[in-house]
Amino acid sequence: MNPTKKAQVLEKLEKLKQEYRAHLPGELDAIRSETQCLGESPSQTKLTSLHRRLHKLAGSAGSFGLSELSARARALELILQDWMDGKPPAYAERQALAEDLNKLGASSLVTPKVHARGSGHTAVHPGKHRNLVYLIEDDASVARELRLALDNFGYQVRHFPRLDLAEEAILAKRPDFLIVDIMFAEENRQGPESIARLQALHEDPLSVVFVSSRNDFDAHLAAVRAGAVGYFVKPLDIPEVIDCLESHLNLYQAAPYRVLIVDDDALLAERYKLVLEGAGMLVEAVTDPRLVLEAMNDFHPEVVLLDLNLPGCRGYELAQLIRLNPDWLRVAIAYLSSEQDEMQQVQAIRHGGEDFLTKPISDLRLVSAVSVRAARSRQLSDAIDRDSLTGLLKHARIKEQVNIELERAARQGKPVSVAMIDLDHFKDVNDTYGHAVGDRVIRALSQLMRQRLRKTDSIGRYGGEEFVAILPDCDQQSACELLNAIRESFAALNFSVGDKVFSVTLSAGVATSSGAWKTNMLEAADQALYRAKDSGRNRVDAADNSAG
Ligand SMILES: Nc1nc2c(ncn2[C@@H]2O[C@H](COP(=O)(O)OP(=O)(O)OP(=O)(O)O)[C@@H](O)[C@H]2O)c(=O)[nH]1
């Protein structure tokens, strides 16, 4: 998160804390007055109401930095629980309970302890687009080739012949990747130690990729110690280098996690929301459990955090309700509650939901617990929808997406183009270099398309070496221009196997709908593709537009 955003979040959290503090005396008054009304043999309704208030106080006070008040409220809550379970306290204990309840508002409890170090807010997920590469390479021809390939993949590249010439630029504008032709000689100023020194100047380590002609254990170890994220031996297989960059970008540029919080304590829900948003997540909070289904439908969360004690229902009942819908099986459900009774926790997990987080929870723990669960949920979702070699949508999903985009385009009165793309003579690549090398070619094309297409476009692996791209709001001419640019970039990419270097071309067919499409778009794109193949391959053909 950038410093301005972080400052805004901190400011909002501080405001919430003030709000909580402002509303706390009223809540403590209510607790005191309910205590005074308990009488000799209080009804279950009175006990339940007071218990509920204490339970909430125990959860919220801790989250707003009042840990002592939280602990005291928790102790009282347990006595109340016993009472509700038919074990009333003895007379002396009741006197002490009343006194303790009266003391809840004491200033020592409602003044937070001052912590020496910062606010305790957690580290942040960067989540912004990163594609600036600084390339440190003294061999002009290697630099030129790498630069061209990276440029084709949409990276912005600055080339420096030596590391010391790049240092100023690195400090002025942090690159997303530093690709360094590393020199291992002791006296060299472009060795792993120089990289380690450079790393020490940055709070977050730079993503450094080492390029070298050495391929021994010591060289790899030195790279790891200098914080390298990749190590490539010359002569370079450039698509492999790009594969490494892409994997790292995918890790950091993934869409933000989506989290739904269900908690009837509006201030606390808002607090959790801010903390998770501060960590780069998208968060919705609902305080009324009756709105959960609507929120599930509209917001599509990947993680749901459920309070256990909600007005009108229990959190685990909501978990069961969510689990009734097979579309939401990928969603991770965790309870976030002040419930400390292990049996209750186990019971809740047995009824749905996978996990129990107890309030109060530190910001760091909340963010890490939610991130882990969101990542799992996404992995599961990806495993269902995405092809494992390329990370692109699978056959059925991309077909479904064509219909979704066609309907959307018809509704909005905008064009949509569908392209069918196929590698040329791919059987020869497999036969000559082996299946594993063929797989690298397939992955390189999928990465190139991902780089070149917009976020709103969809790409799928339709068959073995056949891909489909859906381009909303893109007319036929623009689609053909884009596909031609991808075709040229791909053809310019050199793959190497040992000392052999080869390149691969592709052909594509494009169909565009400018209104209600009457025939099958995929079929039309496929026919155009086969025309391109028939006409000699390495070209893009458009379907006859009059069909759409
Ligand atoms: N390495 C690899 N090869 C695959 C994969 N899926 C399909 N193939 C291969 O892709 C090749 C497709 O061959 P063909 O359909 O004859 O087409 P082609 O050789 O590309 O020729 P044209 O399409 O006519 O230019 C076959 O050899 C398949 O085995 C895969 O996942 N990995």
From TrEMBL:
Gene3D superfamilies attached to this UniProt entry: 3.30.70.270, 3.40.50.2300, HPT domain
4-aspartylphosphate found at: D181, D307
Domain GGDEF stretches: 414-545
Keyword Phosphoprotein: yes
Major enzyme class: transferase
Response regulatory domain segment(s): 132-249, 258-374
Reactions that this protein is recorded to catalyse: 2 GTP = 3',3'-c-di-GMP + 2 diphosphate
Annotated ranges, domain HPt: 9-119
Family annotation (PROSITE patterns): GGDEF, HPT, RESPONSE_REGULATORY
Keyword Transmembrane among record annotations: no
EC code(s) of this entry: 2.7.7.65
Modified residues (Phosphohistidine): H55
CDD domains named among the record's database cross-references: GGDEF (cd01949), HPT (cd00088), REC (cd00156)
Example of a GO MF term: diguanylate cyclase activity
Keywords, in A-Z order: Nucleotidyltransferase, Phosphoprotein, Transferase, Two-component regulatory system
Name of the molecule in the record: diguanylate cyclase
Organism: Gilvimarinus algae
